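Postdoc handover notes: sequence design on the structure in folder B. Input tokens:
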């Protein structure tokens, strides 16, 4: 039978990217192949994000665009998945009468049945119930040859930061049993994966509710023992759950990459309290200091948001001050976006859009200079680069990542893909590094571990 074709559009974060990999894997098993052309598609699925207003509006725009397509091709099935699907459920079906189905964050495993049912009955479906453990946590997408892969270690979040919709759309925090995670890492190495990123909303609280000694540092130690894996990363962590034991892992575990993404959100204690973050500016700075003591070459990156309700000019200056004091290697910065159902949406003193925009621009200008300076500091050094594929900019060049998570483009051949090579860094730019060819050749495994 001719394979059916699915066009999948993904909005949002790494979590959603990984869910999209799982969706494709689930659909592949029932004879669907991915297509990049909408007009070829038998099934169109939009995997959505609702953390901020902008991606949410983009989804509505995208759905509007698909209306004509659906009218011209009656057998086409159109669905919405992800956080917006979870949040809006049936309301999406009401608002978009040509939409066939809505599938929530815990219901991806239902896709084959759901699509088949719609094809046969021409009915419409909405599946958004939460499970204790979403069955899709156990889906291992094996997608051809790739060097790096995400591995889900937990779902949901219990933190309820006052601005954030995630606990409502992803459900309570549940950790995946360690044996299953380790089994997945082993399967991935057999398919050629060399680097894993352990994924969860709050990875450093991993283990809650599991029996035995399941903590995040214990998990890292076990993954470090898996043969065939050269590099381990993780995201995202919460500063309140960053233990001394986790910090020690950076001096003890050779495969753990020298990079920590540790969102701070604000440099003002007053705002951190209103955000319900559970730590203060001093705690945060001290933890970064300890990380740098344990691992002097560690790159520190973070998330920050400006324009939280009631943020004064003074609070904003505190945030800028923290950025200049810590000197982050890079930052993901956002302006506060009011999310229906979160505590912060109802707080007084909402900050006008214009002020939020201006603050974000100022902050990004400051960080750009710091990032560029830090990238220039790498010039002249030899860096261990895991080669991922061809450079996006120049087809004759290769692209890889340093252990500190900096992207490096350098002249080289495709047979280097999957190998860790030593590259001399020639130039540091705002978002990447440029290297000369890896004259020293691949780094021998024996030297690495
Ligand atoms: N669990 C992670 C943590 O605690 O840092 C991050 C999850 S969240 C999907 C990613 C980032 O989006 C957050 O760190 C925060 O900076 C940003 N974010 C969350 N809610 C937001 C909102 N209402 N407006 C703007 N940015 C928001
Ligand atoms: Fe959202 Fe806070 Fe949970 Fe991160 S820790 S997902 S910011 S509620």
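Designed sequence:
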């Amino acid at each position: 039978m001719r394979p059916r074709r699915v066009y999948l559009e993904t909005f949002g974060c790494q979590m959603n990217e990984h869910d999209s990999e799982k969706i494709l894997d689930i659909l592949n098993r029932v004879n669907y192949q991915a297509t990049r052309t909408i007009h070829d598609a038998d099934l169109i699925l939009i995997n959505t994000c609702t953390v901020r207003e902008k991606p949410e509006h983009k989804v509505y725009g995208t759905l509007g665009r698909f209306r004509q397509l659906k009218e011209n091709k009656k057998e086409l099935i159109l669905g919405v998945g992800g956080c917006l699907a979870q949040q809006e459920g049936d309301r999406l079906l009401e608002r978009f009468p040509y939409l066939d189905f809505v599938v929530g964050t815990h219901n991806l495993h239902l896709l084959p049945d759901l699509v088949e049912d719609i094809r046969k009955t021409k009915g419409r479906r909405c599946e958004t119930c939460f499970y204790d453990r979403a069955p899709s946590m156990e889906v291992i997408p094996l997608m051809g040859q790739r060097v790096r892969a995400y591995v889900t270690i937990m779902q949901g979040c219990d933190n309820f930061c006052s601005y954030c919709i995630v606990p409502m759309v992803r459900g309570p925090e549940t950790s995946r049993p360690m044996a299953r995670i380790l089994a997945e890492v082993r399967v991935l190495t057999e398919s050629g994966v060399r680097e894993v990123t352990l994924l969860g909303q709050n990875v450093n609280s991993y283990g809650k509710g599991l029996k035995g000694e399941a903590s995040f540092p214990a998990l890292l130690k076990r993954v470090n023992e898996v043969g065939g894996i050269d590099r381990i990363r993780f995201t995202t962590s919460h500063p309140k759950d960053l233990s001394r034991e986790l910090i020690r892992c950076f001096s003890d575990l050779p495969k753990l990459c020298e990079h920590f993404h540790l969102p701070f959100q604000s440099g003002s204690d007053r705002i951190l309290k209103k955000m319900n973050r559970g730590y203060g500016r001093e705690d945060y700075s001290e933890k970064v200091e300890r990380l740098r003591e344990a691992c002097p070459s560690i790159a520190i990156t973070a998330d920050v948001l400006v324009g939280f309700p009631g943020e004064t000019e003074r609070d904003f200056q505190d945030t800028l001050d923290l950025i200049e004091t810590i000197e982050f290697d890079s930052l993901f910065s956002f302006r506060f976006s009011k999310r229906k159902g979160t505590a912060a949406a109802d707080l007084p003193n909402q900050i006008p859009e214009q002020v939020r925009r201006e603050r974000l621009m100022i902050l990004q200008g400051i960080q750009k200079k710091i990032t560029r300076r830090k990238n220039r500091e790498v010039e002249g050094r030899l860096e261990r680069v895991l080669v991922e594929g061809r450079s996006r900019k120049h087809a004759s060049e290769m692209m890889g990542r340093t252990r500190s998570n900096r992207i490096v483009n350098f002249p080289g051949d495709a047979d280097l893909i999957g190998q860790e090579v030593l590259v001399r860094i020639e130039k540091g730019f705002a978002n990447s590094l440029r290297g000369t060819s890896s004259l020293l050749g691949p780094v021998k495994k024996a030297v690495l571990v």
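Context for whoever picks this up: The CA atoms of residues 94 and 401 lie 45 Å apart. Don't rerun without checking with the PI first.
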